[in-house]
């Protein structure tokens, strides 16, 4: 047999007499490369998968979008809902809720107003991100209207009141007696430059 | 240069040796040359990452800030982790794979020799890029080796882009190396070398290669998302734009957990060759070893969130990831049982490779047990991000991966160099490493349980004594590795000539070729009965 240098050909097996290849080398390498590409795509697929899982199971305190339904009020039960308004780092707005907490009945529609004020001398855009604690209650917290569904543009010195209307689900586990709805306000002016004309929240 | 090309151009000239000069190393496609380069590169990175660890331990020698700025301290912890994981342990195992897999399965070389050359030479480029960031204004990566967003995106130093590119290069190198290993093992085995006759080192590397192919692309995706968040206005990990920083941790640990098995499985394989040799008995439970390795690899994909027990995952999730993690103890227990059973009633001798291998079994088991403690979700709330975690993963990585590499190096040095290493010096290296390593890492369990957080340059006075002991142990371990360099160089330069089979109890095709192994081996495939 002419012994070949494995160093010279790209695919050494074609000349080296070894066991019958179960899969030709070229096809094997192609399959492995497809696996590499598939796993790279899977890394990105984790993004929507994660979003779907979070919304479906209320993981991480993520709340769903706008709630369309309505429920019968359960007057026998009371739940405390606390409100937190926090600025993300570098956000200069004043941001607070009108009251610290509400005591609500599951099933009833409630409203809370949040106040935002732009003390700077330029128009700015903001986005509020909600989160519910404890996280397992997130799927039982329905927002029928929320300023977090849109972005807010405030002119210099402008102040607005922004409503959130919500229903605490009647099916929420009985051991949850106390919820916290926390908003973090992010400055997204760089990403969404505000239109110079007036706009509201 | 033309001489070199000529050298490789004549396929019929099968008696030629290596080319001369520097270009031999730049252009080589020989698995032994490339394996040697991988091993030297890994050792260089081991010393560099180790010197960063010395900076960390010097700062922690006493409470208070005395030697480095906290910002630089953060860069040291980050670079120590990155360099040890991607620069030292992984390339060392790829080097061992390059050297030993063709010799163990009777193949003339790796299946894709030119790609082999490329995957090695990407590494110096990647690490030059990574280390150079330390000299940039704003400093190098300072967000920990796990580079959690938003620390590594919104709040990262400017150099993070270089870090991302370096990770991409390392990833490409690892993926190409892994494809090469799979192709070699599946296609180049000698006649008669069925899968279930392969040495366990080959088996564990085959499984490791599949892990690499599966998770390195996910890491590449993860850093690509970071890059897009930083430069192209996306919001994968930024809550302001609808993303989520916790998503980063899921993507990272989906890579990160299999990664820790990537760093340990080849060591399992090497130890499974070494213990039978010095016990003069065949390995106990070969088949169960193969299945245990495959089970560990499978389980590594479904346990990632045990790194994230405190981010607020639901109770059902915590329970699932806790039980799945505890399940890993079963196949790992099978392996430890098999190693101990192999030694049971064997004619044991304790040459240096065996010392490292036995220490591996004992100390890796200790690291495994602290892993079980961390796997218990309610207990992890206490241990999370303390020095207990640092103690745990150093116990699995230093006497696990690193001792596995030392054991392999001593075991196969006679085959590589043609000389026996100095047994007295080897044993001294072992005992200094053993004592230094335990002194450095055992007290970390105590300070961790008492609440000392990791990644801090300063700490409460109550932790002072244990930290001083840790630092002394770490200096001892670090200095000992310079001594290892001396032992290896001494062995390369001379020493008693090694026979083809220097260990009387050894089994395997690699011992059927002379020592040092000729530049080309198994150009005619051997018959395996």
Order of secondary-structure elements of chain B: HHHHHHHHHHHHHHHHH
How many separate domains make up the residues of chain A? 2
Largest sheet of chain B: none
Count of helical stretches of chain B: 17
Estimate what percentage of residues of chain A fall within beta strands. 25-35%
Structural class of chain B: mainly alpha
What is the CATH topology descriptor of the largest domain in chain A?
A: Ctag/Cox11 (Pfam 04442)
Relative helix content of chain B:
55-70%
GO molecular function (chain A): copper ion binding
Protein name (chain A): Cytochrome c oxidase assembly protein CtaG
Transmembrane segments (chain A): 28-50
Membrane topology (chain A): Single-pass type II membrane protein
Write structural notes for this entry.
The complex is a heterodimer of chains A (201) and B (529). Chain A has 201 residues and is α+β, with helices and mostly antiparallel strands. Chain A contains one helix and nine strands; from the N terminus they run αβββββββββ. In chain A, strands 3-1-9-5-7 form a five-stranded mixed sheet, with no helix packed on it. Chain B has 529 residues and is mainly α. Chain B has two domains: 31-216, no CATH class; 264-516, Cytochrome c oxidase-like, subunit I domain (Cytochrome C Oxidase, Chain A). The longest helix of chain B has 36 residues, at 70-105. The two termini of chain B are 43 Å apart. Mean pLDDT of chain B is 94; it is low at 1-14. Chains A and B meet through helix 1 and strand 9 of A and helix 6, helix 7 and helix 8 of B.
Which key phrases capture this entry?
heterodimer, A: 201 residues, alpha+beta, Ctag/Cox11 (Pfam 04442), four-stranded antiparallel β-sheet, 1 helix, disordered N terminus, disordered C terminus, B: 529 residues, mainly alpha, Cytochrome C Oxidase, Chain A, 2 domains, 17 helices, 67% helix, globular
């Amino acid at each position: 047999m002419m012994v070949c240098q494995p160093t010279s050909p790209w695919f050494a097996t074609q000349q080296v007499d070894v066991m019958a290849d179960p899969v030709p080398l070229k096809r094997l390498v192609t399959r492995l490369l497809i696996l590499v590409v598939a796993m790279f795509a899977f890394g990105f697929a984790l993004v929507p998968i994660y979003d779907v899982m979070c919304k479906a199971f209320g993981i991480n305190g993520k709340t769903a979008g706008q709630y369309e339904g309505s429920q019968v009020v359960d007057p026998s039960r009371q739940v405390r809902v606390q409100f937190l308004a926090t600025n993300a780092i570098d956000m200069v707005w004043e941001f607070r809720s009108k009251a610290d907490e509400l005591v609500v009945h599951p099933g009833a529609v409630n409203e809370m107003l949040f106040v935002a004020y732009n003390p700077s001398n330029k128009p700015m855009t903001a986005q509020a991100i909600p989160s519910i604690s404890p996280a397992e209650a997130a799927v039982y917290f329905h927002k029928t209207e929320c300023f977090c569904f849109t972005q807010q543009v405030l002119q210099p010195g402008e102040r607005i009141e922004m409503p959130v209307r919500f229903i605490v689900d009647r099916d929420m586990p009985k051991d949850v007696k106390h919820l916290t709805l926390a908003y973090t306000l992010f400055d997204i002016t760089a990403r969404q430059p505000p239109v110079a004309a007036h706009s509201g929240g | 240069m033309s001489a070199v090309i000529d050298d490789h151009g004549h396929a019929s000239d099968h008696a030629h040796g290596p080319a001369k000069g520097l270009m031999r190393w730049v252009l080589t496609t020989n698995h032994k040359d490339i394996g040697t380069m991988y091993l030297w590169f890994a050792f260089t990175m081991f010393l560099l990452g180790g010197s960063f660890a010395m900076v960390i331990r010097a700062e922690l020698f006493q409470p208070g800030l005395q030697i480095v700025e906290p910002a630089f301290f953060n860069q040291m912890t980050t670079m120590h982790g990155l360099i040890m994981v991607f620069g030292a342990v992984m390339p060392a195992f790829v080097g061992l794979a390059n050297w030993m897999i063709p010799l163990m399965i009777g193949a003339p070389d790796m299946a894709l020799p030119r790609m082999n050359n490329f995957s090695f030479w990407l590494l110096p480029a990647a690490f030059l890029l990574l280390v150079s960031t330390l000299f940039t204004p704003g400093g190098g990566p300072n967000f920990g080796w796990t580079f959690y967003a938003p620390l590594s995106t919104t709040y990262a130093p400017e150099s993070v882009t270089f870090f991302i590119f370096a990770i991409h290069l390392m990833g490409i190198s690892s993926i190409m190396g892994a494809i090469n290993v799979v192709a070699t093992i599946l296609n180049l085995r000698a006649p008669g070398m069925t899968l279930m006759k392969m040495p366990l080192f080959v088996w564990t590397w085959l499984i490791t290669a599949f892990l690499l192919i599966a998770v390195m692309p996910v890491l590449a995706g993860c850093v690509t998302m970071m890059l897009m968040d930083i430069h192209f206005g996306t919001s994968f990990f930024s809550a302001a734009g609808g993303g989520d920083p916790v998503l980063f941790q899921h993507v990272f640990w989906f890579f990160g957990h299999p990664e820790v098995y990537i760093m340990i499985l080849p060591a399992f394989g090497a130890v499974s060759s070494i213990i039978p040799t010095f016990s003069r008995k065949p390995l106990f439970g070969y088949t169960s070893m193969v299945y245990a390795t495959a089970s560990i690899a499978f389980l590594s994909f479904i346990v990632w969130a045990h790194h994230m027990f405190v981010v607020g995952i639901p109770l059902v999730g915590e329970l699932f990831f806790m039980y799945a993690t505890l399940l890993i103890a079963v196949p790992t227990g099978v392996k430890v049982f098999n190693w101990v059973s192999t030694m049971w009633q064997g004619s044991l001798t304790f040459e240096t490779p065996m010392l490292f291998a036995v220490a591996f079994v004992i100390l890796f088991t200790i690291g495994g047990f602290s892993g079980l403690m961390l796997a218990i979700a309610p207990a992890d709330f206490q241990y999370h991000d303390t020095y207990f975690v640092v103690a745990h993963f150093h116990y699995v990585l230093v006497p696990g991966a690193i001792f596995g590499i030392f054991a392999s190096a001593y075991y196969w040095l006679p085959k590589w160099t043609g000389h026996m290493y100095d047994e007295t010096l080897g044993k001294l290296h072992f005992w200094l490493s053993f004592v230094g390593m335990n002194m450095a890492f055992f007290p970390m369990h105590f300070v961790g349980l008492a609440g000392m957080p990791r990644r801090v340059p300063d700490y409460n006075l109550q932790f002072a004594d244990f930290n001083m002991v840790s630092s002394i142990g770490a200096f001892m371990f670090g200095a000992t590795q310079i001594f290892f360099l001396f032992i290896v160089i001494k062995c390369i330069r001379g020493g008693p000539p090694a026979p083809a089979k220097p260990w009387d109890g050894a089994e395997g095709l690699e011992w059927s070729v002379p020592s040092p192994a000729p530049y080309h081996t198994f150009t005619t495939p051997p018959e395996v009965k």
